[in-house]
UniProtKB/TrEMBL annotation:
Organism: Penstemon smallii
InterPro entries reported in the protein's UniProt record: MCP_dom_sf (IPR023395), MCP_transmembrane (IPR018108), SLC25A32-like (IPR044712)
Domain of life: Eukaryota
GO cellular component: membrane
Main location: membrane
Keywords: Membrane, Repeat, Transmembrane, Transmembrane helix, Transport
Solcar repeats: from-to residues: 2-91, 109-214, 229-320
The protein's name in its UniProt record: Peroxisomal nicotinamide adenine dinucleotide carrier
Record's subcellular location: Membrane
Pfam families (UniProt xref): Mito_carr (PF00153)
Keyword Repeat annotated: yes
Similarity comment: Belongs to the mitochondrial carrier (TC 2.A.29) family.
Membrane topology: Multi-pass membrane protein
Keyword Flavoprotein in annotation: no
Amino acid sequence: MSDALINGLAGAGGGIIAQLITFPLQTVNTRQQIDRDPKKEMRKLGTVEQICQVVKQEGWGRLYGGLAPSLIGTATSQGVYYYFYQIFRNKAEATALELKKKGAGDGSVGMLSSLVVAALSGCVNVLLTNPIWVVVTRMQTHTKKSQLNRTASLSSDEVILATAEPPPYGTSNAVQELYDEGGVLGFWKGVFPTLIMVSNPSIQFMLYETFLKKLKRRRASSSKGSNDVTALEIFLLGALAKLGATVITYPLLVVKSRLQAKQIAGGDKRHQYRGTLDAILKMIRYEGFNGFYKGMGTKIVQSVLAAAVLFMVKEELVKGSRWLLTRGAVNSVKSKPL
């Protein structure tokens, strides 16, 4: 099994576990990001209070709206990302060693190269998985109220049927809704800011690799001479790297969520976005720069926790896989007749 495939599968496993743990926070954060009313009472509520409010008004199930496609998206996204990241990383390391032989550099991958590797991996990931995340955003931001808003254009009999008991809003409903609004291209809504958002994992991995390299060097130069890193240290390094990346790129995440959320036809023109630039200009005009940081506290808690769990689980899975493969190879050699 190739190193790239091991990292891809481990990343997918780590991503699924992190997503299961932090999904309610992600749902609340997405709702915070698309909140356009500066006077809305929900803005004054804390994250825990908002979670309780969603449970009280809509039930526990709404906190996990879109969980199924999200888990598929996470497994696919993390798998794709780590697979291509390892491939590009291996090429960068080979290039660095070649340059060292020619007398240039120390043979290690620098910060700029790490940034390029992460960015390329992120672009491949975004282009392949954006449709899944558009569906997830729709399901996370769907509420009973938004479902009833569509009855304005129905006949009186249809309104009675629609308002009596709204049918469950599932993955197929979100897919059909997106297709009706924009056809196949509707599944790539927000792809431009999302492509720019690859700077988030790029910055994250650049910081993570830098911190990890420094820690290993310090550990190797100590009296023990070992560069082993514990799961807790990986957890903390992942959290620190994600914190820095999230603070820098959060405004782009808000713009992406605004574009991917359902826009009510005939609604307030201030909330109708024709594209990325239009969304940015309208947010600045009607909400000020504070609009770009709605829900950032919740996002920091969710993303930092998710990233820390992902890194820790992924590294442990990689170690375990390599140990099993090595053990299998040794047993295979021992079992061969002399």
